[in-house]
Design goal:
Helix content: 40-55%
Number of domains: 1
Strand content: under 5%
Pfam family, one: TFB6
Number of helices: 10
Largest sheet: 2 strands, antiparallel
Oligomer: single chain
InterPro entries: Tfb6 (IPR031349)
Strand order of the largest sheet: 1-2
Protein name: WGS project CCBQ000000000 data, contig 00015
Amino acid sequence: MTSSIPTPTTPTAQAADEHEINEISEDEMQQLDLNPDLDDVEDIKMEEEDGTTSSSMKRSFIDDERNNYGFDNMEDFKPALDLKSPFDSHTNLSHLSSTEQPPDTSNARRLSLSQQSKFVSYIDEQLLQIQRRFVQSRGLNKEHGYKNLSEVLRDLKKLIDFIWYSVDEVSNTDLILRENLDDSALYQKYQGSKSTNIGQSYYFIRIADDLLDYLGKFPLTEEDEGDGNGDEITISSLDNAIAAVDDQANLEQKNGNTIPTHGSLRKLFKVLSILDTIFARLIDGKVPGNFRISATEIVRLTGIAERTRILLPALMEENNIHGYHYEISRVYQETLERGT
């Protein structure tokens, strides 16, 4: 026969007020050296509250930029470039004469079928020519290839000007940077007008996509050589623009002035700013006929914009270029705000 063992009873816990608490005096607390290295840190300053000799102290950390090399300077986040200045000049567009004001393009007309055929043939040929020169610069025939990124950007800028002229009859896309994209009057300006769309958005997106392939192949630190290849396309009328397909020389107007040299990076940010403005207007329908690009094109465009914003900081680091944080933050900003 087994005997049962009784379960011991649980002792009763004492009340909280029955415990004896040994407190450390305030003088002993001040004598404790909890962090012996604290006094050696130069960027920590002990200040008394209200200017009294009270024992309660507060610590304020003083930012010493001379010792904090890992932090960015405030100047790096200020605009380093005037993105609204002309592509091949430091002159601000707002100071140009009244003759350079954007014309009234609300009555822009669409290309005829024969003009559309010439237009498409010309754009395809020019894009192929740019790709051919790019491949030659990779080692096949360097004498006929691009010497730096600035030459690529010049040719792309000419093509962008030509395509945009067929949309809005503005021959210099530098001028569209002066417009306020958030102004509803820009949309109302084209209400009731006829659409000039013949698929130009496809070529704008293609140029933005091709530009990604060219960026990583040329150093961003190279300067222009001032060889005079930066002349802009000047188109007096739509008929002259299409007729220039047969004679490309008619598209260029020599101004005889010395063009100030810009770095490749300066031209790159301006081209991206122009493309961003064009895409934003196409998404909002702020073009003749209030035409809007399709959702499929917006998805493709959003991917290109995001890839560009990721690639640029990596290229800047690779080329040991610092600053330009503001310009990088503005890359395709208007497009992404509308497309996402």
